[in-house]
Structure formats: C-alpha cells, structure tokens
Amino acid sequence: MEFVRVGAVALLGVLIAVQFKGTKQEYGTYLGVVICLLIFACTVAYMGQAEQQLAVLWRQLSSGSRYFALLFKVVGITWICEFVAGICRDSGFSAVAAQVELVGKIAILFAGMPVFLALAETIADFAG
To answer: How far apart are CA 101 and CA 105, in angstroms?
Structure first.
C-alpha cells in the first residue's frame, strides 16, 4: 500500500506543478523538487525495513558479508545519482545531469574494483 500512497502523492504533485507551468515556472520546479524529496524519504524508510530482513541473511552468510556491503554501496550510489540527475534534467540542465551520471558510473566502477581484483586473483590461482 505504500506504493499507492507514493504514486498518489506524485500524481497530485505533478498535477499541481502543471498549473504553475504557464505562469510561474520556478514554482513548478520547486514543487517537483519537494515531491522528489518526499518520495526519496519514503524510499529510504522502506529500504530500512528491507535492510532489517537482509541483516538476517547477512548473518547466515558471514563469508559474503563484504559483498553485501558492496552491493548496498553500489545501489546507494545508483539511486542518489539517478535522483540528482532526474532533478537536473527536469530543471532543464541536461548537461549537468549527464555529468552526474558519469560521476556515478565512475564511482560504481571504483566501488566494484575489489570484486574484480578478487575475481582476477581467483582466475590467476586456477591458471597457475
């Protein structure tokens, strides 16, 4: 049911923002940013519940715990970059949005580097 509430807030906010599009466009942009922040807050609260459930799995798989931490880090980077890029794109700054997405991709590449190095080490052990 949480998704229905989030969808209703988003739809209502967009309909109100459309009213400002012709006269006071900056108010529509501000309203869009506020709606995005509200939805992001709901998402973070929902992920808190998922984190509790995944903590149980984390304890059961003690050897894979560092990979779960990496997974959460990568998902967090992706969400934040997508959120910021979406706001920039909606505000008319597509070039800034593209740069934010580029920084996100590079951050994900560097965050995943330990996994790549572990895989390369495992392949080298098998080969030699």
So the answer is: 6
Mean pLDDT, to the nearest integer, of 2-20?
A: 77
Q: What is the mean pLDDT of residues 41-55?
A: 74
Distances from the Cα of 104 to the Cα of 10, 37, 80, 110, angstroms:
25, 19, 8, 10
Cα distance between residue 74 and residue 58, in whole Å: 17
pLDDT at position 75 over 60: yes
Q: What CA–CA distances, in Å, run from 87 to 1, 19, 52, 114?
A: 26, 19, 30, 31
User: What whole-number distance in Å separates Cα of residue 80 and Cα of residue 85?
Assistant: 8
State the pTM of this model: 0.58
